[in-house]
Design goal:
Layout (H helix, E strand, L loop, with lengths): L1 H5 L10 H33 L3 H13 L2 H12 L3 H25 L3 H9 L4 H34 L9 H9 L3 H29 L2 H19 L1
Helix pairs in contact: 2-5, 2-7, 3-5, 4-5, 5-7, 6-7, 7-9, 8-9
């Protein structure tokens, strides 16, 4: 496998690693962004008002229960070849975790903090934007990370319905009995998933206000000291 990665032919052309990686990123990033545009406003609004939460979580759970490959096959059957059906299917898979986490994140904001914000004269939009969202960032980002990892993994399966991406190495390697190519593709997908997790974790640290990070760190230290004692 190391020899396979070291072969310059695998880094050039339409089947080269940079090309396949670009295809995989295109499918994954587009699907997650579209899913976020749809899911986050729904979850945030429902969480802020604390209404229809059971309905939102139930719909999200149904979405999670549908097999990923089944969604891809349905989209392929209805809309045919191309990136469009794949992005549509991956977007459908990305939405449920983000809806659930954003809803839970907003509902778990301390009611006393919300009441204090109203007492200080914050309007609804300003209260959500400046008070509730900063406190809810960790849980919201957890949902985005879950969706992103799921999309990156499922985009691999898209190669089974004539899609591009790193999954081509796995599917083509299996069909050609080229197991070196197959394992190399699996390693590339695993590395991309790991890079996605690390990148989004770094983004979360940037988005979480410094004061909340300090409070979380102090709470963690107190909990560790308590366990040690």
């Amino acid at each position: 496998m190391l020899l396979w990665f070291g072969d310059g032919a695998h880094w050039r052309g339409s089947d080269g690693i940079p090309t396949r990686l670009g295809e995989h990123l295109h499918l994954s990033v587009e699907s997650v962004l579209i899913g976020a545009v749809i899911a986050l406003p729904i979850g945030i609004v429902l969480g802020h008002y604390g209404r229809f939460g059971n309905l939102a979580i139930s719909v999200s759970n149904v979405g999670r229960a549908i097999p990923s490959y089944g969604v891809l096959v349905i989209a392929f059957t209805l809309f045919g070849f191309g990136d469009g059906p794949i992005v549509l299917a991956l977007t459908a898979l990305a939405i449920p975790p983000m809806v659930t986490n954003s809803y839970v994140a907003l509902t778990e904001v301390d009611p006393d903090i919300k009441e204090a914000a109203r007492g200080m004269g914050y309007r609804e939009f300003a209260q959500v934007l400046r008070i509730e969202l900063p406190l809810a960032v960790p849980l919201i980002m957890a949902g985005i990370r879950t969706s992103a990892i799921q999309v990156v993994a499922t985009a691999t399966v898209a190669a089974l319905i004539a899609g591009g991406g790193l999954g081509r190495y796995i599917v083509d390697g299996f069909a050609q009995f080229d197991y070196t190519k197959l394992f190399a593709g699996a390693v590339l997908v695993a590395l991309l998933a790991l890079a996605t997790e690390l990148s989004l974790s770094a983004l979360e640290r940037v988005l979480v206000p410094r004061g909340i990070r300090l409070l979380t760190a102090r709470a963690a230290r107190r909990g560790t000291a308590f366990k040690t004692a």
